[in-house]
Design a protein that fits this description.
The complex is a heterodimer. Chain A has 15 helices and 9 strands. Chain A is α/β, with parallel strands linked by helices. Chain A has 2 domains: 57 residues; 251 residues, 2-enoyl-CoA Hydratase, Chain A, domain 1 (Alpha-Beta Complex), CATH 3.90.226.10. In chain A, helix 7 runs parallel beside helix 9. Chain A is globular and about 70 Å long. Chain B is an alpha/beta fold. Chain B starts with a helix and ends in a 23-residue tail after the last helix. Chain B is built from 10 helices and 11 strands. The longest helix of chain B has 20 residues. Helices cover 35% and strands 17% of the residues of chain B. Chain B has one domain: 2-enoyl-CoA Hydratase, Chain A, domain 1 (Alpha-Beta Complex). In chain B, the strands form 2 sheets. In chain B, strands 3, 5, 6, 7, 8, 9, 10 and 11 form an 8-stranded mixed β-sheet that branches. Chain B is globular, with a radius of gyration of 23 Å. The chains are: A alpha/beta, B alpha/beta. The interface between A and B is large, with 56 and 63 residues.
Chain lengths: 326, 305
Amino acid sequence: MPKTERRTFLLDFEKPLCELEKRIEQIRELAQENEVDVSEQIVQLEARAEQLRKEIFSTLTPAQRLQLARHPRRPSTLDYIQAITDEWLELHGDRGGFDDPALVGGVARLNGRPVVMLGHQKGRDTKDNIARNFGMAFPAGYRKAIRLMEHANKFSMPILTFIDTPGAWSGVEAEKLGQSEAIAYNLRQMFSFEVPIISTVIGEGGSGGAIGIGVADRLLMFEHSVYTVASPEACAAILWKDAKKADRAAEALKITSWDLKKLGIIDEILTEPTSGAHAAPLEAAATLKQALWEHIEQLSEISPQKRKDLRYQKFRQIGVFQDSSA
Amino acid sequence: MSLFDWFDNIRKAEPPMQKQQEREIADGLWNKCPACGVVVYTKDLKANQLVCTECNHHNRVDSDERINQLIDADTWQPLSEELNPVDPLGFRDRKAYSDRLQEYQKKTQLSDAAKIGTGLIDGLPIALGVMDFRFMGGSMGSVVGEKLCRIIEHATEKRFPVVIVCASGGARMQEGMFSLMQMAKISGALERHRQEKLLYIPVLTNPTMGGVSASFAMLGDIILAEPKAIIGFAGRRVIEQTIREKLPEGFQTSEYLLKHGFVDAIVPRTQLKKTLAQLISFHQPFFPILSHVDNNGEHSSVMHL
C-alpha cells in the first residue's frame, strides 16, 4: 500500500533515481535469499544514487521546481508549526461571520517565546484539500490573518507568517465579499505594526494571495519553493495565449528562490534536504526553526519605530527603472 | 514563384488593418457611441468630458485629458516625468518586453502608464496620480509603482490630499516579482500618509483590476467610482473558468461594488471635479470662528492656517 501511494506522487525527474533505488533494493533481497555478501557493491550503488540525487535536484528547471513546490507531500503550514513550536493553540474566525480553513493561525511558543503564527493551509488529501480550498483563501482568511496580527502587535508578539498558496480564491463569492479590499487592507496594516514580522515562503507563493500576508521585515524562502506575480499557467494564457506554454512562463518570470535572491526580493534561502522538504520534513523544520529564531533575535534588537522605518525602506527600494534626471 | 506565393506576398505586403485600434476619440468630426450607437458631434462629446450625451456612456479618458478635466487651468506641475521603464528580467513572451515598451512609448508618447504632479482643484492644492490605460493596459510595473510612491511621499511632506485615478488591468507580468512588490510599496507609502491624518481618495475608472484593485485602489478614506466601471480582483474569464458557470448580471461593476459596500459613491465624470473639491474642502483643517474681541481690540475671527 505505501508503495503505490509513493508512486502516485513520483515526479518525472525523480524516476531515474527511483529506479536505481528499486534496483538496489532488489539486489539486496536477492543477495539475502542466496546468502551472498554484496555489501561493498551496495555501498557503491548507494553512493551513486546519492550522487544522482544531488545532480537531479541541483539542476532542476523552474517548471520542475514548481512541481516540487506543489508536491502533495510537501510539509504544510500546520506541519511546520507543529514541528517547531513548544506549544500551539489555533484560533479561529474573522469576527465578521466566517472562518476560513484555507488560512490558519494562532498563538504559539517558539523556544519559550510567545509568537503569533499564521499561514495558508493546503489539504493533506483530496477531501482535506476540498475543505481547505487547496489553500486559496477567501477574504475571510485575510481578515482572520490581520486580526491575529493586530493581536500580536497589541501583545508584542513577533508575527511569523507562512506562505503556501496558488493564489487568493477567484470566485463570485470572493469578489462579492471584497477580496481586493481584504488584501489591500493587510498590505497597508502590516506596515503599521511595531512587532517583528518574518514571512517564509514554504511552497507556492502565488501573487496577491501570497503578499497579502507577506509584508515583512525578513522574507525567507525554502530552496525549492516559488514566488510569482501570476501563476505560470495564467501568465502563459495571457501573454502567450496558450496555457501550455506554462513551462516557458515559469522560466521567464524568475520565480525560484535563487532568482529572487539575486534580484534582491528575498533575504534568505533556506536549504532543503537533498530530495526536497517532503523527503525529510523534520530536517526542513529544524532549518526553519533555526532561521526564524535567528531573525527574531536580530530584529528584537532594533527599536519598534526603527523597525517600522526599515520595513518601509526595504519595500520602498524595490523596483528597477531609469531616472534620466540624475 | 507560384500563384499562391504571390497571393501570400501580397497579403503580407498589405498594411495591417487598423482593426484593434480602440479609436481614441480625437480623430473625426463625428463619433459613434460604442454603447448606444448614436452618432454625436465630437466637439460636443469632448465638451461633455467624453461622456455620451445620449446614453451617459463613459468613454475612456487618457491621462492628459483627465488632468485637464480635474486640475484648474495653468496650475498643473508635473513630477518625475523623466522616469523610464527598463526590462529587469530580460523578459520575452511572443515579443521582447523591451521592444514592447518602445512600441508603446512611440504609439502613446508616454514613458509609462502613470502621470503624477500637483495642482489646484477649485483652488485647493492636491497631489494627483493618473493611470493611463493606453500604455500596456495601465499595467503596474516599477515605474508606475515608483511614481505613485513619490507623489504620495510628496503629499505627505507638503500635507496635501492625494487623489489617484485608477485605470489598470493589474500587475505588469513582464516585470515579474518587481511588479507584485509595487503593491506593498505603494500601500506602505499610503500608511505613512495616513499616519499624518491626511486624506486619500482613489477614483476607480474602467477597468480597475488585479494588483491595482488589491492595493491602493481599495485603500481610500473615501472611494469614488465612475459609473459602470469594471472593478475586481480576478478577471471575469478567470472566474468563469474556475467556477464554470455564468456570472451574475452586473458583476464587478461600480454599481455592484456600491451595493456590496466597497465604494462610497458613484460619481458621473461631469460631476467628478466638483465632488472631489467638495470632499477635499470638507477635510480642510477646521477652526471654529471665535466671535469675541481679543485684548488688542481686534476681531480674531480669522482662520489661522
